[in-house]
């Protein structure tokens, strides 16, 4: 049997998933990256996007995250997500609300830096809307 990657997905509220998986694709701020067992250590911020999980039995799971951090270490991969929603539970109305919230964040931004970050989040959410 192939070695498996220990994966944990944590939100501010609770531990959402803890499992041994084949692979996880993370929406890093510099681009998507795949993590397998024995991956080199990495610490990355995440942009809003989809985490693609390939479970030990080959089953796929897709989870929307609205930013956070991903840490790969010798023990495995831990994702600390600002918000996480299983794609099976994410509907167009919920995503439309996320877009509206992000549009408010852009309008309310007090500095160019905050406005740019809010605009990037909004752009990623709109891109996600097209994949629903």
Proper CATH architecture of the largest domain: Sandwich
Which residue ranges are poorly predicted, with pLDDT under 50 across at least 5 consecutive positions? none
Indicate the radius of gyration in whole angstroms.
Answer: 15 Å
Question: How many β-strand stretches?
Answer: 7
**What does the overall shape look like?**
globular
Q: What class do helices, strands and sheet pairing give?
A: alpha+beta
With helices defined by DSSP (H or I, 4 residues minimum), what is the helix count?
2
Helical fraction equals 25-40%
The largest sheet, given as strand count, sense and whether it forms a barrel, is: 5 strands, mixed, barrel
Strand content: over 45%
* CATH domain class of the largest domain: Mainly Beta
CATH topology of the largest domain, by name, is ATP Synthase, domain 1
Q: How many domain modules?
A: 2
Strand neighbour order, sheet with most strands: 1-2-4-5-6
Name the helix and strand elements from N-terminus to C-terminus, one letter apiece: EEEEEEEHH
């Amino acid at each position: 049997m192939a070695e498996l990657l220990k994966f944990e997905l944590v939100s501010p509220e609770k531990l959402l998933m803890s499992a041994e998986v084949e692979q996880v694709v993370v929406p890093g701020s510099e681009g998507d990256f795949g993590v397998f067992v024995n991956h080199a250590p990495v610490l990355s911020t995440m942009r809003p996007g989809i985490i693609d999980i390939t479970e030990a039995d080959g089953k796929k799971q897709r989870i929307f995250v609205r930013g956070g951090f991903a840490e790969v270490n010798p023990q495995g991969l831990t994702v600390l997500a600002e918000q996480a929603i299983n794609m099976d539970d994410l509907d167009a109305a919920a995503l439309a609300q996320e877009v509206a919230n992000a549009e408010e964040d852009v309008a309310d931004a007090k500095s160019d830096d905050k406005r740019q970050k809010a605009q990037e989040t909004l752009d990623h959410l709109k891109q996600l809307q097209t994949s629903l």
